[in-house]
Design brief:
Blueprint (H helix, E strand, L loop, with lengths): L2 H8 L1 H11 L15 E5 L13 E5 L4 E5 L5 E5 L10 E3 L6 E3 L5 E2 L16 E7 L2 E5 L1
Antiparallel strand pairs: 1-9, 2-3, 3-4, 4-8, 5-6, 6-7, 8-9
Bound molecules: FE2/S2 (inorganic) cluster.
FE2/S2 (inorganic) cluster (FES) binds next to loops.
Length: 139
Protein backbone atom coordinates (compact mmCIF):
# COMPACT_ATOMS: atom_id res chain seq x y z
CA UNK A 1 0.00 0.00 0.00
CA UNK A 2 1.38 3.40 -0.96
CA UNK A 3 1.60 6.17 1.58
CA UNK A 4 -1.14 8.18 -0.14
CA UNK A 5 -3.54 5.22 -0.11
CA UNK A 6 -2.72 4.59 3.55
CA UNK A 7 -3.49 8.20 4.48
CA UNK A 8 -6.75 8.16 2.48
CA UNK A 9 -7.87 5.07 4.39
CA UNK A 10 -7.11 6.71 7.74
CA UNK A 11 -9.16 9.79 6.94
CA UNK A 12 -8.53 13.52 7.14
CA UNK A 13 -7.93 13.77 10.92
CA UNK A 14 -5.24 11.14 10.92
CA UNK A 15 -3.76 12.54 7.72
CA UNK A 16 -3.38 15.92 9.39
CA UNK A 17 -1.53 14.37 12.31
CA UNK A 18 0.77 12.44 9.98
CA UNK A 19 1.52 15.31 7.63
CA UNK A 20 1.98 17.85 10.38
CA UNK A 21 4.73 15.71 11.87
CA UNK A 22 6.45 15.34 8.49
CA UNK A 23 6.71 18.99 7.47
CA UNK A 24 10.14 19.59 6.05
CA UNK A 25 11.33 16.10 6.90
CA UNK A 26 9.74 13.34 4.85
CA UNK A 27 9.10 12.79 1.21
CA UNK A 28 5.85 12.46 -0.73
CA UNK A 29 5.02 10.38 -3.77
CA UNK A 30 4.01 13.33 -5.95
CA UNK A 31 3.47 17.04 -5.55
CA UNK A 32 0.35 18.54 -7.02
CA UNK A 33 0.97 21.76 -8.95
CA UNK A 34 -0.01 24.89 -7.07
CA UNK A 35 -3.17 26.22 -8.72
CA UNK A 36 -4.99 29.52 -8.31
CA UNK A 37 -2.00 31.27 -6.80
CA UNK A 38 -2.49 35.04 -6.75
CA UNK A 39 0.00 36.63 -4.42
CA UNK A 40 0.56 40.36 -3.97
CA UNK A 41 3.93 41.28 -2.49
CA UNK A 42 4.69 44.78 -1.25
CA UNK A 43 8.38 45.07 -1.99
CA UNK A 44 8.74 47.96 0.48
CA UNK A 45 7.96 45.71 3.46
CA UNK A 46 10.91 44.64 5.59
CA UNK A 47 10.48 40.94 4.87
CA UNK A 48 10.98 41.54 1.14
CA UNK A 49 13.83 44.07 1.22
CA UNK A 50 16.24 41.24 0.37
CA UNK A 51 14.74 41.27 -3.12
CA UNK A 52 16.45 44.56 -3.83
CA UNK A 53 19.65 42.57 -4.32
CA UNK A 54 20.28 40.72 -7.56
CA UNK A 55 20.69 36.99 -6.93
CA UNK A 56 18.71 37.03 -3.67
CA UNK A 57 15.50 35.27 -2.77
CA UNK A 58 12.73 35.14 -0.19
CA UNK A 59 10.75 32.06 0.84
CA UNK A 60 7.04 32.61 1.39
CA UNK A 61 6.35 29.46 3.34
CA UNK A 62 2.57 29.90 3.71
CA UNK A 63 2.16 29.97 -0.08
CA UNK A 64 4.96 27.45 -0.76
CA UNK A 65 6.61 29.93 -3.11
CA UNK A 66 10.15 31.18 -3.60
CA UNK A 67 10.49 34.66 -5.08
CA UNK A 68 13.87 35.77 -6.35
CA UNK A 69 15.56 38.72 -7.92
CA UNK A 70 17.51 37.03 -10.65
CA UNK A 71 21.13 37.74 -11.43
CA UNK A 72 19.87 39.90 -14.30
CA UNK A 73 17.46 41.83 -12.06
CA UNK A 74 14.16 40.21 -13.08
CA UNK A 75 11.67 39.04 -10.48
CA UNK A 76 11.11 35.31 -10.83
CA UNK A 77 9.12 32.85 -8.76
CA UNK A 78 8.92 29.11 -8.36
CA UNK A 79 7.31 26.55 -6.13
CA UNK A 80 9.13 25.83 -2.89
CA UNK A 81 8.40 22.12 -3.41
CA UNK A 82 11.05 20.23 -5.31
CA UNK A 83 9.87 17.84 -8.02
CA UNK A 84 12.44 15.24 -6.99
CA UNK A 85 11.30 14.15 -3.52
CA UNK A 86 8.83 16.99 -2.83
CA UNK A 87 10.95 18.54 -0.10
CA UNK A 88 10.42 22.25 0.49
CA UNK A 89 14.01 23.25 -0.18
CA UNK A 90 14.08 25.17 -3.45
CA UNK A 91 16.35 28.20 -3.43
CA UNK A 92 17.57 30.63 -6.04
CA UNK A 93 20.98 29.58 -7.26
CA UNK A 94 22.87 32.86 -7.35
CA UNK A 95 26.14 31.30 -8.46
CA UNK A 96 24.68 29.91 -11.69
CA UNK A 97 21.24 31.50 -12.00
CA UNK A 98 18.14 29.31 -11.94
CA UNK A 99 16.91 27.21 -9.04
CA UNK A 100 18.63 24.77 -6.73
CA UNK A 101 17.19 22.28 -4.28
CA UNK A 102 19.40 22.03 -1.24
CA UNK A 103 18.18 18.51 -0.40
CA UNK A 104 19.83 16.51 -3.20
CA UNK A 105 21.15 19.24 -5.50
CA UNK A 106 18.44 19.19 -8.17
CA UNK A 107 19.10 22.10 -10.52
CA UNK A 108 16.65 23.94 -12.75
CA UNK A 109 16.81 26.81 -15.23
CA UNK A 110 14.86 29.96 -14.35
CA UNK A 111 12.08 28.68 -16.64
CA UNK A 112 11.88 25.46 -14.57
CA UNK A 113 13.59 23.10 -16.99
CA UNK A 114 15.62 20.49 -15.14
CA UNK A 115 19.38 20.56 -15.55
CA UNK A 116 20.39 17.27 -13.93
CA UNK A 117 18.96 13.85 -13.08
CA UNK A 118 17.33 14.98 -9.81
CA UNK A 119 15.77 17.91 -11.66
CA UNK A 120 14.46 15.82 -14.55
CA UNK A 121 10.78 16.37 -13.56
CA UNK A 122 11.22 20.14 -13.99
CA UNK A 123 9.95 22.79 -11.57
CA UNK A 124 6.70 24.73 -11.44
CA UNK A 125 7.31 28.38 -12.26
CA UNK A 126 4.92 31.27 -11.63
CA UNK A 127 4.24 34.43 -13.57
CA UNK A 128 5.48 37.67 -12.04
CA UNK A 129 4.21 41.16 -12.81
CA UNK A 130 5.59 44.35 -11.28
CA UNK A 131 3.34 47.39 -10.75
CA UNK A 132 5.20 50.07 -8.86
CA UNK A 133 6.30 48.48 -5.59
CA UNK A 134 3.78 45.66 -5.80
CA UNK A 135 4.85 42.35 -7.27
CA UNK A 136 2.07 40.03 -8.32
CA UNK A 137 2.84 36.30 -8.49
CA UNK A 138 0.30 34.07 -10.19
CA UNK A 139 0.07 30.45 -11.31
S1 LIG B 1 14.04 16.80 -2.92
FE1 LIG B 1 15.00 18.28 -4.14
S2 LIG B 1 16.69 17.29 -4.98
FE2 LIG B 1 15.72 15.76 -3.83
Amino acid sequence: MKRKEFIEKLGIGAAFVLTSTCLGGCTRDNAEPIKDLDLLIDLTKDEYLELQNFGSYVVIKDSQVVVARSNSGEYVAATLICSHDQLEQITYNDSEGGWLCTAHAARFKEDGEGLNANGSKNLQIFTTELDGDILRVTS
